[in-house]
Amino acid sequence: MTTDRTPTTIDDAIRSKRLPSARREDDYNITYTPQGPPEDGMVCYRARWWIKHPTRGLVTWRGSPQCNANRSVPDRLLPLYPWAEVVFLETAFIREDHRWD
């Protein structure tokens, strides 16, 4: 349920300056996937812009990969991850995380 004070999109949150605070690298809700050969149980993503930790790998928040085909989406999310960068990958393999199902 939303109220007149609840931002409904990322853009609304940015305009209203009500974004959540930056997330710590060791946040329990974040999982990282280093890029390498695919393993059993991994999902393939093609042609996406990703939020990536410089040493730990691709970022997933509560089981949701932090990526999009449109670069502007991860760019707008980047303030939540001040320690990260946005990268483009033709192919990425991510472990499925069932903690949030």
Question: Which terms summarize this structure?
Answer:
101 residues, mainly beta, 6-stranded antiparallel beta sheet, 2 helices, 6 strands, 13% helix
Strand-helix topology:
Layout: H1 10-16, E1 30-33, E2 42-53, E3 57-61, E4 64-65, E5 67-68, H2 72-77, E6 85-95
Antiparallel strand pairs: 1-3, 2-3, 2-5, 2-6, 3-4
- Mean of all residue-level pLDDT scores: 84
Q: Structural class of the secondary elements?
A: mainly beta
Low-confidence stretches: none
Determine the number of helices (DSSP H or I, runs of at least 4 residues).
2
The overall strand count is 6
Task: Describe the overall structure.
It is a single chain. With 101 residues, this protein is mainly beta. It has two helices and six strands. Strands 1, 2, 3, 4, 5 and 6 form a six-stranded antiparallel β-sheet that branches. It is globular, with a radius of gyration of 14 Å. The chain starts with 9 loop residues before the first helix and ends in a 6-residue tail after the last strand.
Summarize the structure.
This protein is mainly beta and 101 residues long. The chain contains 2 helices and 6 strands; from the N terminus they run αβββββαβ.
